Amino acid sequence: MSQMRTAVVLAALCLAVTGCKFVKTADQQAQAAASAFDPDKMVAGAWDAEVLPYMKQRAGAFEDVMALITSNPDAAAQKFGHKEKEGNAPWTYVAMVKGTIVTAETKSRAASVEVDVNGDGKPDVRVAIGPAIRGTALRDSLGFVNFNAFKNQIDWAQYGKSFNTHVNATVLEKLPRDGLVGKKIEALGAFPQPPAGELPQFVPATMTVGG
User: Fold this and answer.
1) Given CA atoms 31, 37, 43, 44 in this order, what sign does their dihedral have?
2) What is the number of other CB atoms lying within 10 angstroms of the CB of residue 200?
3) Which domain covers residue 70, as residue numbers?
4) Residue 6 shares a structural domain with residue 101
5) Disulfide-capable partner of 162 in 39, 66, 112, 172 (CB 3.0 to 4.6 Å)?
6) Which residues, 6 or more positions from 166, have their beta carbon under 8 angstroms from its beta carbon?
């Protein structure tokens, strides 16, 4: 009983002297939930208003981007690329791919198509079609996002993954999976600078596949 009286007295003193407010546990949980890190919501909220306009303004034709990377890497980086100042990540470039699908690998979860851009019948770029998408090219291509704005490396990685989740749900799941070879493709997206002799690995933000 003495402990209970002490608690009541202390509560009364708190209210009288400091005007402090007791917050219900449910209210605290609601406030915490509202402020919780939600990368999927962040990406969805920025997609139409910021992500797509930025990429459309920044993109060059894929063949032009690749030609400039070869002839003048610094100019290509300034015109089409982005790279975080921290770390050793490669430059990531924004481009528009237009061409013909020459091969399609649709049996694995990390499915992709290879696209002939210049009309010689040979693949020039590999385009991810999901559902699993490797890498974080979409996040890494955006000049208006910054690692330092995130709490830690885990949040930064989850944010990058959310771009892939979003584009798969809104774009890639709607694409056909059969009879892709020979079809025309047009895609806006991003790719990291590829190692010498390897096809660029392109992640789309928008994509259409035609007849």
Assistant:
1) negative
2) 22
3) 37-209
4) no
5) 39
6) 40, 43, 44, 47
Same domain? 169 vs 83? yes
Residue 69, C-beta contacts closer than 8 angstroms, at least 6 positions apart? 76, 93, 193
CB 86 within 8 A of CB 184: no
Task: Report the alpha-carbon distance of residue 81 to residue 74 in Å, rounded.
Answer: 9
Please tell me the distance from the alpha carbon of residue 96 to that of residue 108, in angstroms, as a whole number. 25
Residue ranges for the chain with pLDDT beneath 50: 1-4, 6-23, 29-34
Same domain, 135 and 161: yes
Q: Please check whether residue 70 is in contact with residue 33, taking contact to mean a CB–CB distance below 8 angstroms.
A: no
Judge if 52 and 143 occupy the same domain: yes
Count of structural domains within the chain: 2
Residues 47 and 110 placed together within one structural domain of the fold: yes
Report yes or no on whether pTM surpasses 0.90: no
Q: What are phi and psi of 57, to 5 degrees?
A: -75, -30
Question: Does the N-terminal peptide bond of residue 131 adopt cis geometry, omega within 30 degrees of 0?
Answer: yes
* DSSP classification of residue 175: S
156 shares a domain with 133:
yes
Residue 52: its pLDDT value, please?
A: 98
Which amino acid does the sequence have at 211?
A: G
Chain centroid to Cα 120, Å, comes to 31
pLDDT confidence of residue 17: 46
Q: Are residues 85 and 104 in the same domain?
A: yes
Distance CA 91, CA 80 (A): 9
d(CA 203, CA 133): 8
